[in-house]
Structure formats: structure tokens, C-alpha cells
Amino acid sequence: MRKKIIQIASWILIFEVIGFYLGLITKANISPWYQLLNKPIFTPPNIVFSIIWPSLYIMLALAGYLLWQQRHRSIIRTATFFYGAQILMNWLWTPLFFYFHFIGLSFFWIIIIAGFTLVTIYLTKDKFKLISIMLIPYFLWLVFAAYLNGAIWILN
């Protein structure tokens, strides 16, 4: 049991550390670049992102841990592939958008992330319901983030 707790805590810590460093990239590009962009009316205050992402990273870490524990099963191997691809793409989205300012590419990138997440949810919904449930808030946030990204692209 202690080993399992350490493994889960490690997954969460790794995800939170990566999120922290991505937050530094974001923060370094808020002023003046992001502040000067035209944004849609439903853009939340910056503090919302600082609250949402750490929470989502906890759920993503837990889902990743559960997938990893079941990786020997064929359906889970496929789900793990899509999960792994989307999480790597997620981590690359921040530099694409905030550092390189590739707004259009970032929009298509986040659409693919959402699609891969939806595939992961679908593949885990029957036998591994907890994984799919943990990914649903993340998927919904991705849809909202895609709306924001797309609107910023159009408005700028």
C-alpha cells in the first residue's frame, strides 16, 4: 500500500512540476503580448487558469497512473497511447501558444488534444469508468480552451 501511495504521489508531483514550469512560460508572456491580444467576451480572469490547471493535472496524473497500471491489457494499450499522445501535446501547447505565438497552429493542436482525449474516454468508458470520469472535466476544459484559442486567432 505504501508503495502505491508513493507511486501516485510521484505521478502527481511530476505533473504539477511540469505544470509549474509551463506556468512560468505563460507568465513570462502575459505582459505585454497576451494582454494586448483581442480576446472573446467569455475569457476568464488569469487567476482562473491558475486554479483550474493544478486541479486538472491531479486528475490527469491519477488517470495516467491508472492507465499505466493496466497497460498490459490490449484496450488499455490503445487508450494509453492516446492518453500519452494528448498529454505530450498538452505540454507542448503552452510554448506553441505563449512562447512562439503560433495562435493558429495552437488552435488546431488543441483540437487534436481534445480528440485524443475523447478517444481515451471512449476506450475506457466501459471497463475503466473511473479513468473516463476523471478525463471528462479535462475534456470540457479543452473544448472551452479551444473556443478561447480559436476566438483569439480570429480576433487577432
Notes on the protein architecture:
This protein has 156 residues and is mostly helical. The chain has a single domain (2-155), classed as TspO/MBR protein (Ferritin). The protein is 86% helix and 0% strand. It contains 5 helices and no strands. Helix 2 (46-69) runs antiparallel to helix 3 (74-99), helix 2 runs antiparallel to helix 5 (129-155) and helix 3 (74-99) runs antiparallel to helix 4. The mean pLDDT is 95.
Task: Provide key terms for this protein.
156 residues, mainly alpha, Ferritin, 5 helices, 0% strand
Integer count of domains: 1
Q: Which structural class should the secondary elements be placed in?
A: mainly alpha
How much of the sequence is in beta strands?
under 5%
Shape: globular
What's this entry about, in short?
It contains five helices and no strands. With 156 residues, the chain is mostly helical.
Topology overview:
Elements (H helix, E strand, L loop, with lengths): L1 H35 L9 H24 L4 H26 L3 H22 L4 H27 L1
Helix pairs in contact: 1-2, 1-3, 2-3, 2-5, 3-4, 4-5
